[in-house]
Amino acid sequence: LASIAIPHDLREAASNDDISCSLNYGSLSRALMPSVNTRSFPSLEALLDRLFQTCFDEFQTISQLSVTLSKPRAAPYADAVGIKSCRRRDGNPVGRTHFFVERLACNLIVGLNSCERDDKQLVLFDIEISRPFIDAKKPFDFRLLAKTTREVSQRSIFPLTCI
Roughly how many angstroms between the first and final C-alpha of the chain, as a whole number? Predict the structure, then answer.
């Protein structure tokens, strides 16, 4: 799943009722489909780079954009893994790049009372790690993050606390 957000001032298109002052989503879709469907990508980072390049090539007026990529069932016991990134036309990042794991399932002992510690309970984790940059030649290891989180959680007892 790819989500692309393009900041664009729509006031001129709205006030003049002129669609040429807006972004042509059909043109973007027609550029993106062959750009990604005709190749394979060794990592989410490589696909992310391709999406940024295609969008900037298609619309010369875009100065920056954000892309969120989500790959379902890419790590065991997780619903999805993904990347969120924002870049300028010159390729420089805007803020940090976020790597995430969605709904990582772990069976844990959770609770303060002894009766709560009799059975493991299903706990779902959403994990996000940010970095100032990404390196397409050194992809983020989502599986290692998920595996390590599950191993640590299975060795631990988590008391519930109230703030």
Answer: 37
